[in-house]
Write a structure and sequence with these properties.
Number of domains: 1
Helix content: over 70%
Order of helices and strands: HHHH
Number of strands: 0
Shape: globular
Strand content: under 5%
Structural class: mainly alpha
Length: 126
């Protein structure tokens, strides 16, 4: 009997690249939606400019997400590579959030930690 591959299976390098970019963009969109919720709550509780906070979270994710996945694919064979990479992402996002939203770097770091903890823990909850 002949093996049949699904029609969506990427066969060529171009198809694999296109599929990979599609998956990356889909996961990025999901991450942004997840992280907008705690960012919105944080901004409302701390009485910060909501539009700037959400814009800063959007920009921070657009910048840090590809960096995270490129670095993750480079060190995937190492057992505990995820934690240092997540710390790097938090540092990058802290700077971007504080600069774009014009808040203190400590406040940007707290917000980045909060949204990343929520984003990281959500799949474990469900």
């Amino acid at each position: 009997m002949e093996k049949v591959l699904a029609d969506v299976y990427p066969k060529t390098f171009y198809d694999q690249l296109t599929f990979g970019v599609f998956v990356l963009l889909t996961l990025l969109a999901i991450t942004i939606l997840i992280e907008f919720v705690p960012a919105l709550i944080y901004a409302l509780v701390r009485k910060l400019n909501v539009k700037r906070i959400l814009l800063s979270v959007l920009i921070a994710n657009i910048v840090s997400y590809p960096i995270f996945f490129i670095m993750l694919s480079a060190v995937l064979s190492y057992r505990y590579s995820f934690v240092p990479l997540e710390i790097l992402v938090v540092c990058i996002e802290s700077v971007i959030i504080s600069k774009v939203s014009r808040i203190d770097i400590r406040e940007g770091a707290i917000l980045s930690i909060v949204i990343n903890v929520v984003s990281f823990s959500l799949p474990w909850i469900f």
